[in-house]
């Protein structure tokens, strides 16, 4: 019945130290024997996730930037980019607040300014940033895959970011995937849409997909899959969405539940 396992990466298959479960390699072998393909849907940009794609030698399409890019062996095969002009006031306010603003074009990350976060606190799921401000003339014509806005002050969490996007225009949406960061993408971009795109590409239906995740940006993914699993460490809202909640954290729990489904 099931033909594809499509999973989030960070804090789902990878633990908080960015390590795979000790059972992961055997798990991939078992999936292959059962005729179940495996791929990823991540909030990371294509460039940021490429070392893992190389490590896995992944040959199927995978989703990056929360579904804004569908990639295949390091190449963009589908992009859901959007014009940045209408977001100029929002981005300029974010910069005035001292927030970190990163944008992605064709899977490549660029930072608008060199903030403290960029200099000293870059997380493991981002790349070393190229500082490239948007030129005045770019606002009229430039398209991006996503904007990432980071407020890495523990006392504020997402509160300032939510206030910033409170009046976001309907052609855009925002996705949170931690307590300090937010993506702005096109309105119809999500990991759920990416699931359908990848399923169509492989000639299967969404009912034949098992999906796993842990955070807000995984909710659409879990809603669209034939069977859905939340990591034990997932947010409560994600657990309420998923059909199954794993009994162990991170990849250990996800692997256990996928194998039960495939018995």
Q: What's the alpha carbon Rg, rounded to whole Å?
A: 18 Å
Q: How many individual helices?
A: 9
Q: Largest sheet, if any? A: 6 strands, mixed
Strand arrangement within the widest β-sheet reads 9-8-7-11-13-12
Give the averaged pLDDT, no decimals: 94
Q: Could you give the order of the helices and strands? A: EHEHEEEEHEEHEEEHEEHEHEHEH
- Helicity level: 25-40%
> Which structural class should the secondary elements be placed in?
alpha/beta
Shape: globular
The proportion of residues in beta strands is 15-25%
- Give the number of DSSP strands: 16
Spatial gap, N to C terminus: 11 Å
In the predicted model, the low-confidence regions spanning at least 5 consecutive residues are none
Structure notes:
- The protein has 263 residues and is an alpha/beta fold.
- It has nine helices and 16 strands.
- The strands form four sheets. The chain has a six-stranded mixed β-sheet with strand order 9-8-7-11-13-12, sandwiched between helices.
- Strand 14, helix 7 and strand 15 (227-230) form a beta-alpha-beta unit.
- The chain is globular and about 55 Å long.
Layout of helices and strands, plus pairs?
Elements: E1 4-7, H1 24-33, E2 37-40, H2 46-56, E3 62-64, E4 69-72, E5 75-79, E6 82-83, H3 88-96, E7 100-105, E8 108-111, H4 116-120, E9 130-131, E10 143-144, E11 146-150, H5 159-164, E12 172-176, E13 181-186, H6 191-202, E14 209-213, H7 219-224, E15 227-230, H8 236-241, E16 244-245, H9 250-261
Parallel strand pairs: 1-2, 1-14, 8-9, 14-15, 15-16
Antiparallel strand pairs: 3-4, 4-5, 6-10, 7-8, 7-11, 11-13, 12-13
